Amino acid sequence: MRRVPIVPTLLVALAAAAMVALGLWQLLERKPQKEALLAQLAANPRLPAVAFPRFPDETLLFRRASAFCLQPVGFERAGAGAAGFRVIAMCRTGAEGPGLRVQIGTTRDVKATPVWRGGAVSGWVAHAPDSRPLIATVMAPRARELMLVSDRPATGLAANTPPDPASVPNNHLAYAVQWFLFAGVAVVVYVVALRRRGDGRTNDQNPTR
Question: pLDDT digits over 85-95, tens only?
């Protein structure tokens, strides 16, 4: 009767159990939470406008909002696919509290100098560009910064495309399947390794085979 190593087997069993638990968490908790959020986001464009939130609030994505930019203190650009570049103004909103980012339009000219002095702005709530690498968002998750996408472009810029709730992915089912597959692969690989180890010992004990 072949002897199964206890410590490696326990380690593999614990690892597989942890992967299954993560898969169940994605399937039974994170997936329903995301579906509820997506349903709310799909309804947001039809709701009355609100004041732009002072702090990140994912539940307000795609909702119409308004704000007041006292003074733009800088501009940055971010990729906008076929539209070229998004032009985003960093605004001063008062002596205290966080500032405000406003996407004031798009352009294909990377050297274009925006002409915009701030003032009252209306539009939609959207995520601000996040330049952090993917590993940083996983290791140190935090609420993503929001910005106001203006419904009127600044002089010399093209109009912004309204944010689309369909652009928010719901990958939690795929994540769950991945964790279950990882658990299955770990168990299969370990069983194959045990069989080869047992066959090797059998051959050593029967050199005439």
Answer: 999 999 988 75
